[in-house]
Amino acid sequence: MAQIFPKWWNQTPGLALFGTVVGGGVATFGLYWYGSPWHTDVGYKPKQPIEYSHKLHAGDLAIDCRYCHAYVERGPHAGVPSTQTCMNCHSQVKKDSPKLPPLYESWKTGKSLEWVRIHKTPDFAYFNHSAHMGVGVGENRAAIGCETCHGRIDTMEVVAQNQPLSMAWCLDCHSDPAPNLRPVEAITAMGWKADLTWSEKARHIATTLNPPGSLSAAAKRGPNGELLTYATAGCSGCHR
Amino acid sequence: MSTSTAVSLPNDPKLRGDVVLPEPLEGRELLVRGDHDFHSITEMVCAVNEAPILKTPNGLKFGIALAAAGAAMFGGYIGYLVWEGPGIWGNNNPVGWAWDIVNFVFWVGIGHAGTLISAILYLFRQKWRTSINRFAEAMTIFAVIAAGSCVALHTGRIWMDYYLFPIPNQMGLWPNFRSPLEWDVFAVNTYFLVSLLFWFTGLVPDFATLRDRTNVRWRRFFYGFLSLGWRGSMRHWMTYEKAYQILAAFSAPLVLSVHTIVSFDFAVSQLPGWHTTIFPPYFVAGAIFSGFAMVLTLAIPARHWLGLKDVITIRHIENMNKVILLTGSLVGYAYGMEFFMAAYSGNQYEGFTFLNRMGGPYWWAYWIMMSCNVITPQLFWFKKIRTNVKFTFVLSIFVNIGMWFERFVITVTSLHRDALPSSWDYFVPVTEVFFFAGTFGLFFFLFLLFVRFFPVIAMSEVKAVMPQANPHWEGYGHAAGGHDHAGEHAHDHHAAPAVGGVAGPAVATTGGHS
């Protein structure tokens, strides 16, 4: 009787095993990477109604971020400036620029410009800017700079998302905030670098902090060695 | 040795499997009835597999079509479920777990008989298992698939099911390894994988038989592919036996561990009615109980329609009924013990839960469970009943019903009266009825395809327990019945005495060493 299968079929079990193990691994990690916000979200750069440039305003003109994102220290949302804020200057500056008619249109009609939202955490995750703009108490005051989470905005013609904003990303900092701390005065500074003295201090400050989800927050001890628990220490710190 | 108590079996293969033989004085009753040799066993088992597609027996055709319709309905229902979410079920506020989990536990439980038969009975050298292990294992696999579809689909956002596995993800989260629900994921997956390997390993020599007997091209490919180049050499058999034993050793603990862990889903929580230490053994006994009932529900029609009564004899059925009697009584004991603990502990919440089970809004479910699981199986004390095929079939269906209700009672009645009386509610199923029917459609679809294309009886193993396989067997010519030609298949032979001697294919004891 003729052979049903050619001889190389003898290799199939080995090949199948190899394929399953390697293919399974590649598929898992491929999906992990291509499905992760590092790949899906970072670099998101929608077209805005006005070709507004942070490089020009925040970089070259060096306008402080808080001039426009006024609530960043006070509320959960940094806020995007109203037409009025632009008009503070543009009622005088570059009045006949071909890029600005939508602004004047908005000013005339009173209808807001519809900026396209770039950074967005899902509704089930609670993020608050003000909680990051000044952390710790008294001597041990520090902050996280815009730069750390949004990148070098002052060099961007068009704002693009720079960090994944995924949960693992939040937790990476929450478990070890020290390298990301800076003095409160330097919140909006771009290209800021810590010196040795500050690094030392930041490590100390970090031990006093309890960001939700940090591993240390679970087992913080008070002055008398008693175990402190924080209402916001666990998952519910962000998933309220 | 000559025949002492000769009982003559009718010559009709449709009847002789059902005849109850007296206990042999020495040794055991032969496992295969009728004057079969190896070849006639092959012929008998392969008949249905080898029928041309268009000549599939009508009953089977109809069955496959019906089951396929059920499975297709299930597919549609899954689409509806995924689109709408689990809100289409009757689950309400205190009753957050209902048919989804009930059906899951029901199906996983059923699988356990297959593993018990294939692994534990194998390790204990219970040779009667050989006639029933193949399709009991198939039943296990399809039952676990049905069970898996219940849990995989009950999560709501099923595209998030990968959370169940420890896969790196953007949340930086592992599954909660301290949760019994997570242990369950591993238990059920291990169970499925090991059962599948075990089943397949056993099938390899039989696939090779089918491959060698056919000259239809696609069948040669199909069975040739599945038989992995099996040639039946001595080395193949040695490797096969080793592999089989190792897999049996893997499966044996699973009989106990899987349903133990399923019971932890309940027992580790703190709900009265769930939080009991008796759950693991009680669930395992219940699983084997329900599994054997399902084996009977499937085996009785199968042996009838496929003409397999010579290998699945009334003796096999009786043995299974004894297992049902034992495990059913254990389950009954556990029901009693739960009540005792509730009373003896003096815990009023525990007490309330159990009184509420018996007389609360779900009293009917409780009493269905009690009658089908505890009361009716006791009829198997009577030999007349446990050797009566029709009775057995009906009682096995009762057990299936009872065991489904057991899970319903445990899950729903414990939940519907929680600690906050204002949230008490009554659960009524809505569309999950189709979900459950759909799992049956899927199960029977797979099972009937299996019956159609795969050998339902482990041919090579059955042959190994026939007298011919005994090295001391003296050959057809020497048999007490006096056959003339060795190797002749004597379909028209007179049935030989069934009990007593050792020699001859139709004589009904094997040596005492079995």
Describe this protein's structure.
The complex is a heterodimer of chains A (240) and B (514). Chain A is mostly helical and 240 residues long. Chain A is 36% helix and 3% strand. Chain A has helices at residues 12-35, 37-40, 54-60, 65-68, 83-90, 101-109, 130-133, 146-150, 167-175, 196-207; strands at 143-144, 181-182, 220-221, 227-228. In chain A, helix 5 crosses helix 6 (101-109). Chain B is mainly alpha-helical and 514 residues long. Chain B has a domain at 60-315 and 410-455: Formate dehydrogenase/DMSO reductase fold, CATH 1.20.1630. Chain B is built from 15 helices and two strands. Chain B has helices at residues 38-50, 58-84, 99-123, 133-154, 180-213, 217-226, 234-267, 279-305, 314-345, 348-359, 363-375, 383-386, 389-416, 432-453, 459-464, and strands at residues 28-29, 509-510. The longest helix of chain B is centred in the middle third of the chain and has 34 residues, at 180-213. The A-B interface holds A 4-5, 9-10, 13, 28-29, 32, 35-38, 164, 166-169, 171-172 and B 167-173, 211, 220-221, 224-225, 228-229.
What CATH architecture label of one domain in chain B applies? Up-down Bundle
Radius of gyration of chain A: 25 Å
Rg of Cα set of chain B: 25 Å
Mean pLDDT of chain B: 87
Short summary of the structure?
The complex is a heterodimer of chains A (240) and B (514). With 240 residues, chain A is mainly α.
Set down the secondary structure blueprint.
The complex is a heterodimer of chains A (240) and B (514).
Chain A: H1 12-35, H2 37-40, H3 54-60, H4 65-68, H5 83-90, H6 101-109, H7 130-133, E1 143-144, H8 146-150, H9 167-175, E2 181-182, H10 196-207, E3 220-221, E4 227-228
Antiparallel strand pairs in A: 1-2, 3-4
Chain B: E1 28-29, H1 38-50, H2 58-84, H3 99-123, H4 133-154, H5 180-213, H6 217-226, H7 234-267, H8 279-305, H9 314-345, H10 348-359, H11 363-375, H12 383-386, H13 389-416, H14 432-453, H15 459-464, E2 509-510
Antiparallel strand pairs in B: 1-2
